[in-house]
């Protein structure tokens, strides 16, 4: 094990008082989501009688089934909106937080949908005990739009099953992403029966409410997932300029484009990339910028971890690129303090390498800790040393495997048993710094835990991961 390499930093400056980030546009979004759920329950109360319907003979099961279906529909819409790539939502909350909320809403919606199906099946069989098979056949097949709804429900079940962590481990990202797109088809297929068969959709003003809700989700998705990316791809005309090997299995791709400054991209952000290099081009992959963006060039760095990422090494100059973005909040916009601590592991160095290039800070105000498995896998080692010397960054290199799955340190004689003490020794003034962290999810968790225990404020620890 090689002991940590520490490059000297410039003179220290006294810490300035924290700066407040203030109000962000996404702050009311959670409240609006809660209000939508309250509105759905209110509609159920007004149309079904609320709790009174649960005491009426023969109505309780169907009324509960209707409430479960309404809530499932509302949460389905919310989960689509959360990942509709609405720019101000992405900038305010960040992709990883939105992804976690998308998954939470998705699983909650799924179980409510299952409850909706089961409760109505029970209600039909109790109502027609002498003709149960025929009653269920009408419920799931022959009633108005019910065959379509059944097919949509099966599609959503498939999406949820393949989203379970154990199932995702067995799938390539490309395969999982393709299957996940069936959720849109599933939601669309269940939509018609709610208006033709749902009792809560008979009132005009109720139908207007739901039409507006579905319409907003559809419009947001169409605009921000399809129309805006297509327009930006056509306008900025990005093409591969060069492909450079950085380490075994890792390449940097530099792309040249037109008026890229109009996108207002900043270091730390990422795009979803599609390269028109042959079959499979339609499967987008998220890659962060690994250098500060310029008015005519962007650079990404890709580590081969699947079919899509391995193709990056085979890209040729002139290959056209389609983009979605920019996304991400691991940027200097989130700073609350003048000093910086940046911590990266493996390919997680890419956004932090861009951040230290153009983020405003004085010599001695930034520290970069970079952990990697072996010297040959130290991406940007020479660039980092040059940036550290030019801008007065304290650069700490930690080669070697991790000490343990729950630790952020490298193994070997140079480590301390206590992660918190090790971090405090390296960065004694961590409470006066913004902490930017990027790497594997488990490593990010270990760093966040140690940083908080060492004195970093919760709002000053900034992370973003792209685990799927």
Give a summary of the structure in a few sentences.
It is built from 15 helices and twelve strands. The chain is of the alpha/beta class and 468 residues long.
Rg estimate, integer Å = 26 Å
Task: Assign the structural class, choosing from mainly alpha, mainly beta, alpha/beta, alpha+beta, or little secondary structure.
Answer: alpha/beta
CATH architecture of the largest domain: Up-down Bundle
Q: What is the string of helix and strand elements?
A: EHHHHHHHHHHEEEEEHEEHEHEHEHE
The largest sheet, given as strand count, sense and whether it forms a barrel, is: 6 strands, mixed
The termini sit apart by 32 Å
Q: How is the largest sheet built, in terms of strand order?
A: 1-10-9-8-11-12
What is the CATH fold-level name of the largest domain?
Four Helix Bundle (Hemerythrin (Met), subunit A)
- The proportion of residues in beta strands is 15-25%
Assembly state = single chain
Shape: elongated
InterPro entries: FAD-bd_FR_type, Fe3_Rdtase_TM_dom, FNR_nucleotide-bd, MRET, OxRdtase_FAD/NAD-bd, Riboflavin_synthase-like_b-brl
Region (Disordered): 1-22
Keywords: 2Fe-2S, FAD, Flavoprotein, Iron, Iron-sulfur, Membrane, Metal-binding, Oxidoreductase, Transmembrane, Transmembrane helix
Protein name: Ferric reductase-like transmembrane domain-containing protein
């Amino acid at each position: 094990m090689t002991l940590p390499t520490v490059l000297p930093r410039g003179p220290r400056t006294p810490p300035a008082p924290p700066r407040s980030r203030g109000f962000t546009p996404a702050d009311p979004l959670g409240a609006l989501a809660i209000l939508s759920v309250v509105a759905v329950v209110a509609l159920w109360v007004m149309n079904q009688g609320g709790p009174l319907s649960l005491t009426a003979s023969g109505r309780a099961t169907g009324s509960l089934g209707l409430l479960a279906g309404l809530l499932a529909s509302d949460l389905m819409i919310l989960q689509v909106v959360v990942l509709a790539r609405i720019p101000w939502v992405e900038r305010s909350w960040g992709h990883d937080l939105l992804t976690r909320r998308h998954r939470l809403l998705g699983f909650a919606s799924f179980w409510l949908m299952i409850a909706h199906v089961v409760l109505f099946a029970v209600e039909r069989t109790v109502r027609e005990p002498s003709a149960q098979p025929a009653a269920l056949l009408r419920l799931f097949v022959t009633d108005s739009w019910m065959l379509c709804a059944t097919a949509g429900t099966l599609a959503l079940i498939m999406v949820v099953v393949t989203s379970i962590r154990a199932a995702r481990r067995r799938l390539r990202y490309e395969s999982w992403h393709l299957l996940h797109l069936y959720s849109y088809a599933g939601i669309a297929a269940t939509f018609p029966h709610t208006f033709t068969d749902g009792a809560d959709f008979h009132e005009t003003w109720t139908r207007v409410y739901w039409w507006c809700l579905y319409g907003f989700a559809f419009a947001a998705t169409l605009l921000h997932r399809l129309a805006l990316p297509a327009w930006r791809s056509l306008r900025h005309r990005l093409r591969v300029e060069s492909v450079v090997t950085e380490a075994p299995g890792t390449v940097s791709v530099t792309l040249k484009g037109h008026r890229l400054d109009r996108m207002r991209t900043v270091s730390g952000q990422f795009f979803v990339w599609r390269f028109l290099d042959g079959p499979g081009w339609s499967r987008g992959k998220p890659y962060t910028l690994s250098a500060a963006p310029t008015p005519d060039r962007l650079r990404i760095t890709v580590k081969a971890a699947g079919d899509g990422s391995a193709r990056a090494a085979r890209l040729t100059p002139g290959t056209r690129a389609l983009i979605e973005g920019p996304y991400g909040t691991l940027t200097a916009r989130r700073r609350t303090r003048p000093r910086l601590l940046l911590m990266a592991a493996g390919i997680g160095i890419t956004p932090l390498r861009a951040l230290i290039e153009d983020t405003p800070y004085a010599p001695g105000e930034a520290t970069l800790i970079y952990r990697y498995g072996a010297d040959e896998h130290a991406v940007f080692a020479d660039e980092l040393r040059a940036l550290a010397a030019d801008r007065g960054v304290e650069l700490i290199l930690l080669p070697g495997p991790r000490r343990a799955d729950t630790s952020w340190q490298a193994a070997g004689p140079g480590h301390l048993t206590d992660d918190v003490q090790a971090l405090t020794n390296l960065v004694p003034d961590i409470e006066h710094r913004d902490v930017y962290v990027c790497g594997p999810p488990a490593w990010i968790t270990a760093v966040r835990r140690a940083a908080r225990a060492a004195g970093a404020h919760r709002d000053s620890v900034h992370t973003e991961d792209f685990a799927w």
